[in-house]
Amino acid sequence: MTGTSRSPAAGITSRQFPLTVAGTGVVALLALVGSGVAWDGKPTLRFIVGVCITLLIVSAVTYRSLVRARAVDGAQLITVATWVTIVRGGLVTAFAGFVFTDPPGGAATWVPAGLFATAALLDAADGAVARRTDSVTEFGGNLDTEIDALLVAVGAVTVVLAGTAPAIFLAVGVARYGFTAGIRWRRHRGLPVKELHPSQFRRATGAVIMSTVFLALLPVPGPAVSRTVAWFVSVPVLAHFIWDWLTVSGRLG
């Protein structure tokens, strides 16, 4: 082995990773500038700190997605579809600032819902672009899944703290992280993990959760409606997560 060999992680760090993080940061900055136009109070220090923390989280998620993709499928390209996902990461980063501050007033009341809705709608765009251009990549798929989960989690935390969704909805927001953590724990213990069969309900769950968050972020129709809807969504979604866990853990056939 020569002294000039490089690990896959080193190659990623020197090329794709800084580029994707820079793209995420630029999108987040542009979103903040646009939001500031409508926001009379302007982003507070707590808001900016929240954005910076989320940028670090998105950066870590991006790095992990790159490393996993390269281990499975070799060198990874940043395709047009992946750039759409990176834009979504920047929007999530800007939106996350609202977790750390009170909802803005005036015209800016619509800003959180606008940022969230744009990030959610682009979820359909990145997959469509990847299929249309025949540029589906392991990295793009991994990153898309991670950004979806982060968007749902941040959205759930935001609306629960704002009082427009019940506390149980927070469990919906982090259910995917708990589910994957449980699978890793079973594999670490050497316990069997069964595969899940495709489910139409599971496919629709993400869209239903995002729609519920969007409703709770809107100034109208108000907390009474959004809290009720969130309750009706939370019960079947959490029940299905429990059912899937019983399946992968072998307790159900």
UniProtKB/TrEMBL annotation:
GO function terms (MF aspect): CDP-diacylglycerol-glycerol-3-phosphate 3-phosphatidyltransferase activity
Gene3D superfamilies: 1.20.120.1760
TM stretches of this protein: 21-39, 45-63, 75-100, 149-179
Enzyme class: transferase
EC number: 2.7.8.5
Cited InterPro entries: CDP-OH_P_trans, CDP-OH_PTrfase_TM_dom, CDP_ALCOHOL_P_TRANSF_CS
Protein's UniProt keywords contain Manganese: no
GO cellular component terms, semicolon-separated: membrane
Signal sequence segment: none
GO annotation, biological process: phospholipid biosynthetic process
Keywords: Membrane, Transferase, Transmembrane, Transmembrane helix
Annotated Pfam families: CDP-OH_P_transf
Family (UniProt): Belongs to the CDP-alcohol phosphatidyltransferase class-I family.
Name of this protein: CDP-diacylglycerol--glycerol-3-phosphate 3-phosphatidyltransferase
Lineage of the species this protein comes from: Archaea, Methanobacteriati, Methanobacteriota, Stenosarchaea group, Halobacteria
